[in-house]
Design a protein that fits this description.
Blueprint: E1 6-7, E2 28-32, H1 37-48, E3 52-57, H2 60-73, E4 79-82, H3 88-101, E5 107-110, H4 126-153, E6 158-162, H5 175-194, E7 201-206, H6 213-218, H7 234-241, E8 251-253
Parallel strand pairs: 2-3, 2-5, 3-4, 5-6, 6-7, 7-8
Antiparallel strand pairs: 1-4
């Protein structure tokens, strides 16, 4: 469904644009959860590095604000996709649109996440449990399912998934979130093994303690000024998204002490 991807400068002649420069010059990168937090910071940095960023989030207004910021920075204009990816058919439609427009995808960043309610496993609402696993795990599987063929069409396809320390270090009361991240880590590892002999590289990043809305929700009494901002992690994402990245099947831990 090509109308789900909106070029924010459809009335301009792309041939008149200056050649993009930067580590990601000319690369097509899809970023989920791009309207806030880490996704927003990385989408902005990818654009500054010359990537054609397909920014995906549920809220169009927030995506448009991000696009305004990118344009003000002189970065590549964004392509905006305001969709809820738990409607899994939208993912398939996005894949079709990318195939028609670019014929490939160079970078997939699976960043969107949902914390859910923290508390004892036995007290968790079943609908919330299902939704957390859907957003954090199933959506990323659907992204792999739909976009793997396009990543393989790239000369240097890169898939990056955002995890958490609780995905590999069990922690009481983190329930569905921890379970979903553990599943995500295993899924990324399986995918990495399956594409070992292709041009696709698959890695995970654990940003650790970061000044985001999700962190504030999990730790409401914490002083945000003590936390690194999302932009502090952008270099690591650029490195994994770059065509010359050789890391594969790795979990990059950016967690700050504490």
């Amino acid at each position: 469904m090509t109308e789900t991807i909106t070029d924010t400068q459809t009335d301009r002649d792309p041939s008149s644009d200056p050649m993009p420069r930067g580590r990601l010059a000319g690369r097509v990168a899809l970023v989920t959860g791009a309207s806030r937090g880490i996704g927003r910071a990385v989408a902005r940095r990818f654009a500054a590095e010359g990537a054609h960023v397909v920014a995906v989030a549920r809220t169009l207004a927030a995506l448009e604000e991000l696009d305004d910021e990118v344009r003000a920075d002189g970065g590549q204009p964004l392509m905006l996709v305001a969709e809820d990816l738990t409607d899994h058919e939208k993912i398939d439609q996005i894949a079709v649109a990318l195939a028609k427009r670019f014929g490939r995808l160079d970078v997939l960043l699976g960043n969107a996440g949902l914390l859910g309610r923290l508390g004892p496993l036995g007290h968790m609402d079943p609908e919330m449990f299902d939704r957390v696993l859907n957003v954090n795990l199933t959506v990323n599987w659907r992204l792999i399912r739909a976009l793997d063929p396009l990543l393989r069409q790239s000369e240097a396809g890169r898939a990056i998934f955002v995890t958490s320390g609780v995905g590999h270090e069990p922690r009481a009361y983190w329930g569905a979130y921890a379970i979903s991240k553990a599943g995500l880590e295993m899924m990324a590892g399986v995918y990495a093994a399956e594409v070992l002999k292709t041009n696709v590289k698959v890695n995970l990043i654990n940003p650790g303690r970061t000044r985001t809305g999700m962190r504030r929700e999990a730790y409401p009494g914490e002083d945000p000024e003590t936390l690194p901002v999302p932009e502090a992690h952008a270099d690591a994402f650029v490195r994994l998204a770059a065509a010359d990245c050789q890391e594969h099947g790795a979990l990059i831990d950016l967690a700050a002490p504490g």
